[in-house]
Protein backbone atom coordinates (compact mmCIF):
# COMPACT_ATOMS: atom_id res chain seq x y z
CA UNK A 1 0.00 0.00 0.00
CA UNK A 2 1.16 3.28 -0.70
CA UNK A 3 1.65 5.46 2.22
CA UNK A 4 0.10 8.83 2.02
CA UNK A 5 2.32 11.64 2.57
CA UNK A 6 0.93 14.84 3.86
CA UNK A 7 2.68 17.63 1.95
CA UNK A 8 0.50 20.35 3.40
CA UNK A 9 2.90 21.42 6.17
CA UNK A 10 5.78 21.48 3.71
CA UNK A 11 3.78 23.57 1.25
CA UNK A 12 2.71 25.94 3.99
CA UNK A 13 6.30 26.35 5.11
CA UNK A 14 7.43 26.97 1.55
CA UNK A 15 4.60 29.39 1.05
CA UNK A 16 5.48 31.29 4.26
CA UNK A 17 9.13 31.40 3.23
CA UNK A 18 8.17 32.72 -0.20
CA UNK A 19 5.73 35.24 1.28
CA UNK A 20 8.34 36.34 3.82
CA UNK A 21 10.94 36.73 1.07
CA UNK A 22 8.68 38.86 -1.10
CA UNK A 23 7.39 40.82 1.87
CA UNK A 24 10.96 41.61 2.96
CA UNK A 25 11.90 42.45 -0.62
CA UNK A 26 8.96 44.83 -1.17
CA UNK A 27 9.26 46.26 2.32
CA UNK A 28 12.95 46.92 1.74
CA UNK A 29 12.18 48.50 -1.62
CA UNK A 30 9.44 50.61 -0.03
CA UNK A 31 11.72 51.65 2.85
CA UNK A 32 14.51 52.41 0.42
CA UNK A 33 12.26 54.58 -1.76
CA UNK A 34 10.89 56.32 1.36
CA UNK A 35 14.47 56.89 2.58
CA UNK A 36 15.57 58.28 -0.79
CA UNK A 37 12.49 60.54 -0.86
CA UNK A 38 13.18 61.78 2.67
CA UNK A 39 16.84 62.43 1.88
CA UNK A 40 15.86 64.25 -1.32
CA UNK A 41 13.30 66.34 0.58
CA UNK A 42 15.78 67.18 3.32
CA UNK A 43 18.46 68.16 0.77
CA UNK A 44 15.90 70.19 -1.16
CA UNK A 45 14.74 71.82 2.08
CA UNK A 46 18.32 72.67 3.07
CA UNK A 47 18.99 74.10 -0.39
CA UNK A 48 15.84 76.22 -0.13
CA UNK A 49 16.87 77.45 3.33
CA UNK A 50 20.35 78.25 2.04
CA UNK A 51 18.87 80.11 -0.92
CA UNK A 52 16.54 82.06 1.38
CA UNK A 53 19.41 82.86 3.73
CA UNK A 54 21.52 84.03 0.80
CA UNK A 55 18.69 86.24 -0.44
CA UNK A 56 18.18 87.60 3.06
CA UNK A 57 21.92 88.22 3.48
CA UNK A 58 22.06 89.95 0.10
CA UNK A 59 19.10 92.14 1.05
CA UNK A 60 20.80 93.03 4.34
CA UNK A 61 24.02 93.82 2.50
CA UNK A 62 22.13 96.03 0.05
CA UNK A 63 20.39 97.78 2.94
CA UNK A 64 23.71 98.29 4.73
CA UNK A 65 25.36 99.65 1.58
CA UNK A 66 22.38 101.90 0.95
CA UNK A 67 22.65 103.18 4.51
CA UNK A 68 26.40 103.75 4.04
CA UNK A 69 26.04 105.49 0.68
CA UNK A 70 25.21 108.99 2.03
CA UNK A 71 28.04 108.81 4.54
CA UNK A 72 30.48 107.61 1.87
CA UNK A 73 29.32 110.36 -0.48
CA UNK A 74 29.79 112.89 2.32
CA UNK A 75 33.30 111.55 2.98
CA UNK A 76 34.07 111.72 -0.74
CA UNK A 77 32.81 115.29 -0.86
CA UNK A 78 34.89 116.19 2.20
CA UNK A 79 37.94 114.56 0.63
CA UNK A 80 37.36 116.53 -2.59
CA UNK A 81 37.02 119.73 -0.55
CA UNK A 82 40.27 118.95 1.27
CA UNK A 83 41.97 118.28 -2.06
CA UNK A 84 40.63 121.57 -3.44
CA UNK A 85 41.85 123.42 -0.32
CA UNK A 86 45.26 121.76 -0.62
CA UNK A 87 45.46 122.71 -4.28
CA UNK A 88 44.42 126.27 -3.46
CA UNK A 89 46.98 126.40 -0.63
CA UNK A 90 49.71 125.08 -2.94
CA UNK A 91 48.82 127.68 -5.55
CA UNK A 92 48.82 130.37 -2.88
CA UNK A 93 52.19 129.22 -1.60
CA UNK A 94 53.65 129.21 -5.11
CA UNK A 95 52.27 132.71 -5.66
CA UNK A 96 53.65 133.74 -2.30
CA UNK A 97 57.13 132.71 -3.43
CA UNK A 98 56.70 134.47 -6.78
CA UNK A 99 55.45 137.65 -5.14
CA UNK A 100 58.27 137.48 -2.61
CA UNK A 101 60.78 137.28 -5.48
CA UNK A 102 59.08 140.20 -7.24
CA UNK A 103 59.16 142.22 -4.02
CA UNK A 104 62.88 141.55 -3.70
CA UNK A 105 63.36 142.92 -7.23
CA UNK A 106 61.82 146.28 -6.32
CA UNK A 107 64.33 148.96 -5.41
CA UNK A 108 63.74 150.76 -2.11
CA UNK A 109 62.52 153.87 -3.93
CA UNK A 110 59.80 151.91 -5.83
CA UNK A 111 56.41 150.58 -4.75
CA UNK A 112 53.46 148.94 -6.47
CA UNK A 113 50.01 150.51 -6.54
CA UNK A 114 48.26 147.88 -8.62
CA UNK A 115 48.93 144.31 -9.66
CA UNK A 116 46.62 142.23 -11.89
CA UNK A 117 46.86 138.68 -13.26
CA UNK A 118 44.89 137.60 -16.30
CA UNK A 119 45.45 134.74 -18.73
CA UNK A 120 49.15 134.37 -18.12
CA UNK A 121 49.87 138.10 -18.02
CA UNK A 122 50.94 139.96 -14.89
CA UNK A 123 50.50 143.73 -14.99
CA UNK A 124 52.42 145.87 -12.52
CA UNK A 125 51.60 149.50 -11.89
CA UNK A 126 53.44 151.62 -9.38
CA UNK A 127 55.61 154.62 -8.56
CA UNK A 128 59.30 155.34 -8.06
CA UNK A 129 60.92 158.34 -6.42
CA UNK A 130 63.48 158.87 -9.17
CA UNK A 131 64.32 157.79 -12.69
CA UNK A 132 67.35 155.72 -11.56
CA UNK A 133 65.06 153.50 -9.46
CA UNK A 134 62.76 153.10 -12.47
CA UNK A 135 65.70 152.07 -14.67
CA UNK A 136 66.95 149.61 -11.98
CA UNK A 137 63.45 148.09 -11.71
CA UNK A 138 63.20 147.58 -15.46
CA UNK A 139 66.65 145.95 -15.52
CA UNK A 140 65.68 143.61 -12.67
CA UNK A 141 62.39 142.67 -14.40
CA UNK A 142 64.24 141.80 -17.61
CA UNK A 143 66.71 139.56 -15.75
CA UNK A 144 64.29 137.57 -13.56
CA UNK A 145 63.41 134.05 -14.89
CA UNK A 146 59.73 133.71 -13.93
CA UNK A 147 58.29 136.26 -16.36
CA UNK A 148 59.36 137.88 -19.59
CA UNK A 149 58.93 141.61 -19.93
CA UNK A 150 56.77 142.26 -23.00
CA UNK A 151 57.13 145.95 -23.53
CA UNK A 152 57.17 148.70 -20.98
CA UNK A 153 53.87 150.49 -20.69
CA UNK A 154 53.49 154.19 -20.24
CA UNK A 155 55.94 155.92 -17.96
CA UNK A 156 55.26 159.46 -16.80
CA UNK A 157 56.14 161.84 -14.07
CA UNK A 158 53.34 163.07 -11.81
CA UNK A 159 52.95 166.49 -10.19
CA UNK A 160 54.92 165.47 -7.08
CA UNK A 161 57.94 164.38 -9.13
CA UNK A 162 57.37 160.63 -8.80
CA UNK A 163 57.69 158.42 -11.82
CA UNK A 164 54.60 156.31 -12.56
CA UNK A 165 55.21 153.05 -14.42
CA UNK A 166 53.20 150.25 -15.97
CA UNK A 167 54.81 146.94 -16.97
CA UNK A 168 53.23 143.92 -18.59
CA UNK A 169 54.94 140.59 -17.86
CA UNK A 170 54.13 137.27 -19.53
CA UNK A 171 54.59 134.00 -17.71
CA UNK A 172 57.76 132.20 -18.79
CA UNK A 173 57.21 128.80 -20.44
CA UNK A 174 59.88 127.18 -18.29
CA UNK A 175 58.06 128.14 -15.10
CA UNK A 176 54.45 127.40 -16.10
CA UNK A 177 54.15 124.64 -13.53
CA UNK A 178 55.12 127.03 -10.74
CA UNK A 179 51.85 128.87 -11.21
UniProtKB/TrEMBL annotation:
Residue ranges that the Swiss-Prot or TrEMBL entry lists as coiled coil: none
InterPro entries in the cross-refs: Extracell_DNA_Util/SecSys_Comp, PilN
PANTHER family: DNA UTILIZATION PROTEIN HOFN (PTHR40278:SF1)
Protein's organism: Citrobacter werkmanii
Segments passing through the bilayer: 21-40
Protein name per Swiss-Prot or TrEMBL: Fimbrial assembly protein (PilN)
Keyword check for Transmembrane: yes
Alphabetical UniProt keywords: Membrane, Transmembrane, Transmembrane helix
Keyword Transport: no
Pfam families in the record: PilN (PF05137)
Amino acid sequence: MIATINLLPWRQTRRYICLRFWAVFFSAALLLSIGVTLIYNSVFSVENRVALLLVEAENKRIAALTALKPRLQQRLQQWQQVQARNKQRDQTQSWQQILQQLAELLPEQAWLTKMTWQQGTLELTGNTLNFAALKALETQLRQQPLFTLNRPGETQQDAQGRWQFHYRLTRSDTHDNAL
